[in-house]
């Protein structure tokens, strides 16, 4: 370790190899964020000398992380090479695993979506579901015109919480056998590539913050209401996951809206989820005498047509939603709550009478809007997260090729 004396005190100085690595990562991240630029432009922007920038770009180009794309005239009239990141240095697959659908996006390292696939989930076991995930990725990569083997990393947006110590997902009762141990190994070995598993609602919050209604808002909450329910909490641009990763698993909140609590507790799904998620909408509508409604989507369609039992079922959802929004506001005081999911997308219907009910319950009133990313919100967030994970891994792997790095 070298030491530099500063004002009489000694301080450790980074080794040359560490400084090179820091410069390489710094310049690469700058190009990802700001786009193509010449060496002089990069030097001025990052505050490094042109020889340092020149050497750093040469290393990054040698390992295929950056490339040149023509020339530009500088202020002195001299032509200068333009450098940009090579988006094809890696490719990621993002997969939103839902009870009814698998949604897949293939992206390059810049975040450009190369292809998208949507497949109905017909799996009845974890093994068959893992096989469907692989087939969906293969289909999307084919549509993108790339080989399956060109995918360098897959990120899975899954219900529940991934536990690394047991290699399993918990709190994902909607997916048959998905909670069994060693799920990660099965995914990794079947797909034949590195895999990351993260909570779907947290990724949806990340997607909404980056590209949707939550852009630039701090703090904000993404509320998902579909086959399951949950919230993603974004504070200072980062998703808050809690001590064990279970922050936002609000399905286990001990209240059920307009009906009184009973002695029967659904510990697998949670009291609130059992009362508020998609299946409960259908069940309640049937109890009111509604016929021909086998899905929550159908209940909302009939409510729009003025069918009385369907409208009453939706009104029940509104009352539960008002209580839930009040609870979120009291605990987190967010600037914005974005509502999404199969049921949450119907905020136009759920919002009828919502303001009056919220006024009755509390003076706390955050702004409430519908998701602008719709059904793609979780997979879009998975792309964002997957790109970040893949960049880290590919940078480490490529820079290890440089002698003395």
Automatic annotation (TrEMBL):
<dbReference type="InterPro" id="IPR036390">
    <property type="entry name" value="WH_DNA-bd_sf"/>
</dbReference>
<dbReference type="GO" id="GO:0003700">
    <property type="term" value="F:DNA-binding transcription factor activity"/>
</dbReference>
<dbReference type="Pfam" id="PF00480">
    <property type="entry name" value="ROK"/>
</dbReference>
<dbReference type="InterPro" id="IPR036388">
    <property type="entry name" value="WH-like_DNA-bd_sf"/>
</dbReference>
<comment type="similarity">
    <text>Belongs to the ROK (NagC/XylR) family.</text>
</comment>
<dbReference type="InterPro" id="IPR000835">
    <property type="entry name" value="HTH_MarR-typ"/>
</dbReference>
<keyword id="KW-0808">Transferase</keyword>
<dbReference type="InterPro" id="IPR000600">
    <property type="entry name" value="ROK"/>
</dbReference>
<protein>
    <submittedName>
        <fullName>Sugar kinase</fullName>
    </submittedName>
</protein>
<dbReference type="GO" id="GO:0016301">
    <property type="term" value="F:kinase activity"/>
</dbReference>
<dbReference type="Pfam" id="PF12802">
    <property type="entry name" value="MarR_2"/>
</dbReference>
<feature type="domain" description="HTH marR-type">
    <location>
        <begin position="24"/>
        <end position="69"/>
    </location>
</feature>
<dbReference type="InterPro" id="IPR043129">
    <property type="entry name" value="ATPase_NBD"/>
</dbReference>
<keyword id="KW-0418">Kinase</keyword>
<dbReference type="InterPro" id="IPR011991">
    <property type="entry name" value="ArsR-like_HTH"/>
</dbReference>
